[in-house]
Amino acid sequence: MAKRGSKPTTKLDQAAQTRGQRKLWRDLTILAQDPQVQVDGKPLWSSVTLPCEPLLPGPCGARIKVVDYDASQDRCYAPLAGGYEAKGEPVDPFALVSGATRLRDPRFHQQNAYAIAMRVLCRFENALGRRVNFGFNGHQLHIAPHAFAEANAYYSRESRSLCFGYFPDSNNQTRFTCLSHDIVAHETAHALLDGLRPHYIEPSSPDQGGFHEGFSDIVALLSILSDERIVETILTRKKVMSAGQKLVAKKQLGVRELRRSTLLGLAESMGEMLPNGAATALRQSVTLKPTPKWLADPEFAEPHRRGEILVAAVLNAFIAVWRHRLNGLGEIKRGYLDASRVVEDGATAASHLLTMCIRALDYAPPTDLQFSDYLSALLTADRETVPDDSRYEYRRTIRQCFAAWGIEPTSDPAGDGCWQVFSGPIDHANIRFESLQRNTDEAFRFIWQNADVLKLSTDAYTHVSGVRPIARVAPDGLIVRETVVDFMQILSVRSDELADLGLRKPTQMPTFRQVRLYGGALLVFNEYGQLKFSIGNGVLNIARQQKRLDHLAESGFFEYRNESAFSRGFFSRLHLNRARGL
Q: Where are the beta strands (DSSP E) in 309-455?
């Protein structure tokens, strides 16, 4: 059986070549981190294995399209040539080019952004067991590697793009955000999360505002920590050699020592200059002392600070799991372990946690997300594919690390914290499960027939936003098949009608101002058509709706004409404030 996270096998490639077909995979050179991070005076390079799709100049593939236009200089850079093949073999255009030439060449900047974005997209699709759609009408995410002369980078739903800026540093050297691995991965994660959960950018609560930033930081950081070369570089700065073998002292591998050497070391290597990078969140995960008091601290109502809590909980779980995996390693020399095994276990732990964090999105409510909801989603997503967690205890560790911040699962806090299996009486009359696996109208029929047992409002507008058949491969090789149905409920009410629903009008809300109340759920069916989970928030959950209204008032929402005006440019404003330290 192929090891999870390993490079794709070449047997299929060989078979395809024998049949005269296109190879399935290609390797492309990327920067493993920002160019300022150097080993022996040289930037740290790596390569990624990606699907070998036909590429047009840009590069431009089926899902990622690089359009290198600089709005500040009204300049369009020449695109990297397409094709990438020689005699039928995939070619890496920069494999044999010197590092200095790569850094100067805008075409390498284009390849770097394309390859990292594709790598993140592939990780999402591998974890979720299906293709992932974007949050806009279109199949391709556009990337502008040199979009403007500004210390910023952001995802824009309106322009269907990732825009990366450039700026002079303190030495008057131009810094390109498109060359920073964590920034490209972070912005790509924003775009993918927006496609999976489009209502998460809407104002709802401090947790939902912080989740987009925290989750994107987690994807960026765990992607980097999944690279064995990065982990080795950080961990073995102080190494011992024995018969040509790198060793690591066991005293360096305690939980506290790993947090300092790996997490703080990675944060320091990222530097301070780059905007929207995950270095600040990573640094806080080491320096912040876990405490439930942040829940009532106004400072942590700001999205970036709120997101830092999520990052800290997940990365502390990464260190704890890594340490747990090392318990079974034998000593090579008294007091020392084989560095390569330590590095492999660290990268594997990061890769597994990244998969868990992405899969949890399929078990997270479609609107009004709280960190406690995401914790239940994390635990459930892992239990569904890995029922036996006794070997490395990922779920127990994650729950402990979240509890240190006062975050308990929404579901069954006294039990395993996973979502409760649905147990109500379901009306399957006239429901065809084959259609339910792919047809939104069939899904709506199911919801219509079971509105009472699902505790839905019959006065609200109901919309099925997606039906997704899923096939995930568990560590034992078995395939877990599910169907996930997303639906939303929306009530549009005026401020003078809130009292009729038991809600209090915030003082900042204008008279007769209309506001939308959101509810919705995920319905998860097993492979036999039985409803396993109904995960969501009712549109008439008065307590949650009141908290949301109060948050809208505090965040200045009612100063905008409507929700569209507030959401437009959401990420560019958010990231510009982060870059400016606001």
A: 336-338
Q: Please name the helix (run of DSSP H) or strand (run of DSSP E) that holds residue 161, with its range, or none.
A: strand 161-168
Contact assessment for residue 336 and residue 242, using Cβ atoms and an 8 Å cutoff: yes
Tell me which residue has tokens 């505790």.
455
DSSP states of 221-259: HHHHHT-HHHHHHHHTTS-EEETTEEEEEGGGGSHHHHI
pTM: 0.89
Strand 25-31 and strand 45-51: the pairing is antiparallel
Cβ atoms of residues 376 and 417 within 8 Å: yes
**C-alpha count within 13 angstroms, C-beta hemisphere, residue 106:** 17
Where residue 298 falls among pLDDT bands split at 50, 70, 90? confident
- CA dist 576 and 39 (Å) reads 31
* Chain centroid offset of residue 200 CA: 13
Strands 141-148 and 64-66: parallel
d(CA 527, CA 484): 11
| Distance, C-alpha 350 to centroid of its chain | 13
The residues, ordered by sequence, that sit 6+ positions from 178 with a Cβ below 8 Å of its Cβ are 109, 112, 113, 143, 145, 146, 153, 164, 166, 184
Q: Say how far apart CA 296 and CA 511 lie, in whole Å.
A: 30
List Cβ neighbours of 15 (8 Å cut-off, separation of 6 or more): none
Quote the tokens at residue 155. 């995802």
Q: Which helix (H) or strand (E) holds 491?
A: strand 479-494
286: pLDDT strictly greater than 80: no
**Sign of the C-alpha dihedral computed for residues 372, 545, 214 and 5 taken in this order:** positive
Percentage of residues in the chain with pLDDT exceeding 70?
86
Which of these ranges, 54-68, 139-153, 228-242, 347-361, has the smallest mean pLDDT?
228-242
Query: Rounded distance, CA 15 to CA 20, Å?
Result: 9
| Chain mean pLDDT for the chain | 85
C-alpha–C-alpha distance, residues 420 and 323, integer Å: 31
Closest CA to 163 of 171, 172, 153, 174: 153
Structural tokens at position 119: 């790598």
Handedness of CA 232, 233, 234, 238 (dihedral sign): positive
Look at residue 173 in the predicted model and tell me its pLDDT. Answer: 86
Nearest to 274 by CA among 37, 432, 518, 14: 37
Reported as a single tens digit per residue, the pLDDT across 434-471 is 899 989 999 999 999 999 999 999 899 999 999 998 88
Highest mean pLDDT among 18-22, 85-89, 187-191, 283-287: 187-191
Summarised one tens digit per residue, pLDDT across range 103-138 is 999 999 999 999 999 999 999 999 998 899 999 999
Closest CA to 489 of 467, 520, 466, 465: 520
